[in-house]
Here is the input.
Amino acid sequence: MKKNKSIFLLSFALTSALFVSCEDSIDKVNSPIPYESIGGYDNSDDVAAAHLVSKFSFDGNIADSKNGITDGSGTNVAYGTGIKGEAYQGSASSFIAYNTVASSIVNLKSVTISMWIKTDPHTGGAQSLFMLPKKTDFWGNIFTLIEGTGPATTMLLKNHVQKDVMPSIPWAGQFIEHGGTNVLANMFGSWKHLLWTYNGTSSTYSLYIDGQKIVLPESISKRYASDPLTGGLPYGELANSEVSKFIIGGYQQHLGTPWGAPDGWMLNYTGSMDEFRIYDAALTDNEVVALYKLEKDKR
Here is the structure.
């Protein structure tokens, strides 16, 4: 009886060792199961990769990984949990100033601005998410603002861009404003993917929230004084000029000379920001959806 028991134990041990050995071999040979592609892309940086000219991930630093905007210094900068890794955490006194702006940014003809924001309602003025300054213009070249007006569930967003237009067509100082019936709903208290594009060829503007294209009236989406199809002139390509520096979380007036002090309503951005990107083209609907989903998936 003892002999049979010994034979059984020996057989069991050999079988167990063989099973473990085979299992180890399988683990070593098989590769991890790849992520399913989204919109034909595996990683957010693959989306319109040739057109990505600036990217800030805010993973414990203020660096632009594409080096389109460099030589940065932060004022009261802090970091918190982001949609991917860490995120920039703004405050009433914080902003990031960059001294060097590459020609890839200065010479933008079309543009896509993409970022994740998480913020709460505010009062007292307009908070600036970012600004590409202009030395001799109060409003700069390009910026996006959040106005402190309206109910706590809605956001009044203003965008501004400089245009290459004939002098007879006014533009500088005008805004693309999401107010009135176009105020953005349910934008506070959680992470939101905010993306807008301007196509210089077609003179069209588009806005996306969480990958969804917002239906806009033609007075906002078509950026021209009168319809080119009926003899009008489009605003055309972007025309940034006298570019000096770049700022995240504030206005050009927070940078000092050559600008005066900021007006009282010019507020620093107090929310969180993550994965800030600039493209030198207007992304397509498919690219926008893929970028949103991939970043949300932390890829």
